[in-house]
Specification:
With 384 residues, this protein is mainly alpha-helical. It has 19 helices and no strands.
Length: 384
């Protein structure tokens, strides 16, 4: 690591840390918070589904603008400020009498939650070769921030109530944006201003890119159940707010080792073999979730996140970089994220709600794990 870049890398690390503390504060208690407001399960599912639809539109739009006008830095700053504003309003008490307004504000806060981290990660990954090389180490500070945020949120809720979350997140986003101002923008591409929607269509004509979309869509769809159906299972097992906080924070802590060392394994074994491996681990994780009969067992099983998420994140960034031209890199990342992270959030609550009427949550989790045979098979066709 060159000394002349140490200042920049330090600012990037702090930006990720502060940002992910804020993201964790908003998201890890969102389901218990909505439940405390009297928002029923069906309406909570509608919030999550609607937020995912909004996030898809925002991600595609911001990805296109970032490539077309080379403005990913400005867009990331604006979206973070909006996220801070909607989070502040969604968690405050001044609109106590308007559940419908809470519904909208929470929906917008969750929608932007699904966008902000991906924009920030894409920006950092595109800065230069050094940030790409050390991306896992840099992203470690995001995991650390998430772990601390997930731990602190239960203390904030117990001491001051949910409304304190909004105030803290608002201040954190102001601090985060202040740090972003000192981060460099990615180098400009000479072909960027000529990009139009037809160029974006080229992504979908790339067979390997489409294959990656399908594989990561399925893996993230199953893994995202950890924040939805698994939380429902925890509530079914009478888990407390502290249990849920511990569930989130321990997962984030478990990610740290492979955030640092994951790049070594990917370089040694290749993205294809890692995809095959992580498909097996996700399958194992959800089968075990289905067999667990206590909240403590689920918390222990959740530590497999330490293997799953770092490899998913790092391999996805690697594959997008290898299968998209540089002038479409931001669009490649944002389209990948829109499809693999947000479409599953639209499908999962609806499908889960339907399945819960006929099957136990534990059975659904076992079936979800077994379904990973699909991305496992497709991973053998990947080209690294």
């Amino acid at each position: 690591m060159k000394i002349k870049n140490l200042k920049m890398l330090t600012i990037v690390s702090l930006t990720l840390f502060v940002g992910f503390v804020g993201y964790a504060l908003v998201y890890t208690q969102i389901i218990p918070y909505m439940e405390s407001l009297g928002i029923n399960a069906q309406s909570r599912g509608l919030v999550l589904t609607s937020s995912a639809i909004i996030a898809i539109v925002v991600q595609l739009f911001t990805g296109y603008l970032s490539d077309r006008y080379q403005m990913i830095k400005g867009i990331t700053i604006i979206v973070h400020l909006m996220f801070g504003l909607f989070s502040f309003l969604g968690y405050t008490r001044w609109i106590n009498q308007s559940i419908s307004l809470y519904f909208v504000l929470i929906m917008l806060a969750v929608a932007l939650f699904r966008v902000v981290s991906n924009l920030l990660e894409s920006w950092i990954y595109e800065i230069n070769e050094e940030t790409q090389k050390h991306f896992g180490i840099l992203r470690l500070f995001g995991s650390l921030g998430w772990a601390i945020g997930a731990y602190l949120v239960s203390i904030l809720v117990n001491q001051g109530g949910y409304h304190v979350i909004g105030k803290v997140v608002g201040l954190l986003m102001i601090l985060d944006v202040s740090l972003m101002i000192f981060m460099p923008a990615p180098p400009k591409s000479l072909t960027a201003l000529s990009i139009n929607t037809k160029d974006i269509q080229k992504l979908f004509k790339n067979k390997q890119y489409v294959l990656m979309l399908i594989i990561f869509f399925w893996l993230f769809m199953i893994n995202n159940l950890s924040g939805l159906t698994v939380i429902d299972r925890l509530l079914e097992l009478k888990a407390t707010s502290s249990d849920i906080s511990q569930f989130w924070s321990l997962q984030a802590i478990s990610e740290m080792v492979l955030m640092v060392g994951g790049g070594f394994f990917i370089a040694k074994f290749g993205g294809k073999k890692i995809l095959i491996f992580v498909s097996c681990i996700i399958a194992l994780r959800f089968v075990l979730y289905g067999l667990a009969d206590s909240s403590q067992q689920i918390i222990i099983i959740s530590l497999l996140q330490g293997i799953i998420f770092p490899f998913l994140l790092l391999v996805q960034k690697r594959m997008v970089a290898r299968h998209t031209p540089i002038e479409l890199r931001s669009s490649g990342h944002m389209v990948m994220t829109a499809v693999t992270s947000n479409i599953p959030i639209i499908i999962t609550p609806v499908l889960s709600g339907f399945l819960i009427q006929n099957f136990a949550i534990s059975q659904i989790l076992v079936f979800a794990g077994l379904s990973c045979i699909i991305p496992l098979f497709l991973s053998f066709m990947a080209i690294d």
